[in-house]
């Protein structure tokens, strides 16, 4: 069957990510969506650059309206940004009966109500997972995963630029202006960073989350917006001494009298997970009456993280077009006829094939040559040592002890190889107790 035809409006950082990820993962995406998804047309003012990205895989045009007018196009992806031409194009795409995917938080926070109404009247979807917190599926979590709850509050670090600046100010004790220049040099902040540093970008995202959390219209004009430009390094230091970190939070809360919607620098207890979200990363905490507090963390910007969210929307819409309504989302994520048989080409590995690194604690006689013998056995089994720690015998077994603990961290190795080596080490007469093995996961 012909793949779903997608028209891209704008192929900058995010657009090229969408193109590349769709190419790279096309087989899995097809198996999930139930149909192929293909970028058939791209509209960009810089047609030459667009062609250098898509080659001959998609038709490149200079006029976005050519994409919208093409009856072959099923879904229009708007990646132009801003409230101007982007708004007109989204409304025109909707009027032409196209489904729309957009990453445009500014547009939705200000004109979302009008756009969603137009889409509902026309019977098309406007999907926007990428508009809030980039690659983190927070829209899906709020709208679907937490649907049982009365959401009580949402608080998020939803602007990577400002979180990077605050992290640097704290780490290096530098003032805002100095760090901003550095952030611009490194590409973490735009040449015109106003929307980020004044809190506007975060307020757009908080506005969208507020609407979803509480079932109210998007009301960006009611949001309180305060950025980080007036923050002094001194306050970050004093806050730290009192056990707090300063973060730019987007907050929305359900109160008796109404809904709070605000963005401003906030002191957060240093022990909270969200206080430890550093650099350009994003995180959102959602508190629901049934579920309690949940946390979502990840990259809030960047080419492929944002593309991840855009493509998730493309898959959702394709399933909507394609699937039997009772099985819109396949129970095991992939369309059932594309599931692999157990053991086929992607078996669950036996533990002996698992690759991980290890912490070993070996109780040994404190004698000459014991360590050399053990490391020799590890080397013989092809296992590389990352670190070794030997405790003083007195510390381990009390004064005059002749036993000690050897702590060894290894690099990655096959569990089967480790089993063989540990059996040999355990058999040494100088190893005095069962060896403790704990697997180590860096998760980086
Ligand atoms: N400028 C945003 C940020 C990314 O710094 O997080 C896109 O919303």
Automatic annotation (TrEMBL):
UniProt: NADPH binding residues: 105
GO molecular function: homoserine dehydrogenase activity; NADP binding
Positions contributing to L-homoserine binding: 190
Active site annotation, chain numbering: 205 (proton donor)
Keyword set includes Oxidoreductase: yes
Gene3D superfamilies with a match to the protein in the record: 3.30.70.260, Dihydrodipicolinate Reductase, domain 2, NAD(P)-binding Rossmann-like Domain
Domain ACT, chain residue ranges per copy: 359-440
Pathway: Amino-acid biosynthesis; L-threonine biosynthesis; L-threonine from L-aspartate: step 3/5; Amino-acid biosynthesis; L-methionine biosynthesis via de novo pathway; L-homoserine from L-aspartate: step 3/3
GO biological process, one term: methionine biosynthetic process
Enzyme Commission number(s): 1.1.1.3
Alphabetical keyword list: Amino-acid biosynthesis, Methionine biosynthesis, NADP, Oxidoreductase, Threonine biosynthesis
First-level EC class: oxidoreductase
Similarity remark: Belongs to the homoserine dehydrogenase family.
PANTHER family in the cross-refs: HOMOSERINE DEHYDROGENASE
Protein name per its UniProtKB record: Homoserine dehydrogenase
Species: Alicycliphilus denitrificans (strain DSM 14773 / CIP 107495 / K601)
Classification lineage: Bacteria, Pseudomonadati, Pseudomonadota, Betaproteobacteria, Burkholderiales
């Amino acid at each position: 069957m012909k793949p779903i035809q997608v028209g891209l409006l704008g192929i900058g950082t995010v657009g090229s990510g969408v193109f590349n990820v769709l190419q790279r993962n096309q087989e899995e995406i097809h198996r999930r969506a139930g149909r192929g998804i293909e970028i058939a047309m791209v509209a960009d003012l810089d047609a030459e650059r667009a062609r250098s990205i898509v080659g001959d895989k998609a038709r490149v045009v200079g006029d976005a309206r050519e994409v919208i007018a093409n009856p072959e196009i099923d879904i229009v992806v708007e990646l132009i940004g801003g409230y101007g031409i982007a708004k007109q194009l989204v409304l025109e795409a909707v009027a032409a009966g196209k489904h729309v995917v957009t990453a445009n938080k500014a547009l939705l926070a200000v004109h979302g109500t009008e756009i969603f109404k137009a889409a509902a009247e026309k019977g098309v979807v406007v999907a926007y997972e990428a508009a809030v917190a980039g690659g983190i599926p927070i829209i899906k979590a709020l709208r679907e995963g937490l649907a049982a709850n009365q959401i009580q509050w949402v608080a998020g670090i939803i602007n990577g630029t400002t979180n990077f600046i605050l992290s640097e100010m704290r780490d290096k004790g530098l003032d805002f202006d100095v760090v901003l220049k550095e952030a611009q040099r490194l590409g973490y902040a735009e040449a015109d960073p106003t929307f980020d540093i004044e809190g506007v970008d975060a307020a757009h995202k908080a506005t969208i989350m507020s609407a979803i959390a509480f079932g109210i219209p998007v009301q960006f004009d009611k949001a309180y917006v305060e950025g980080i430009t007036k923050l002094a390094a001194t306050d970050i230091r004093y806050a730290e001494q009192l056990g707090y970190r300063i973060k730019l939070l987007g907050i929305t809360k359900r109160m008796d009298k109404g809904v709070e919607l605000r963005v401003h620098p906030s002191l957060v207890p240093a022990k909270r997970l969200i206080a430890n979200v550093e650099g350009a990363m994003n995180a959102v905490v959602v508190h629901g009456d049934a579920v309690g507090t949940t946390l979502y963390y990840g990259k809030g910007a960047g080419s492929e993280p944002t593309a991840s969210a855009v493509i998730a929307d493309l898959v959702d819409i394709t399933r909507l077009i394609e699937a039997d309504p009772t099985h819109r989302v396949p129970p095991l994520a992939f369309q059932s006829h594309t599931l692999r048989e157990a053991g086929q080409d992607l078996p669950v590995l036996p533990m002996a094939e698992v690759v991980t690194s290890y912490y070993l604690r070996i109780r040994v006689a404190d004698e000459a040559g014991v360590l050399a013998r053990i490391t020799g056995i590890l080397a013989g089994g092809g296992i590389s040592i990352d670190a070794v720690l030997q405790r003083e015998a007195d510390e381990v077994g009390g004064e005059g002890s002749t036993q000690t603990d050897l702590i060894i961290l290894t690099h990655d190795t096959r569990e089967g190889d480790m089993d063989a080596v540990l059996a040999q080490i355990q058999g040494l007469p100088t190893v005095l107790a069962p060896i403790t093995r704990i697997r180590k996961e860096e998760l980086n």
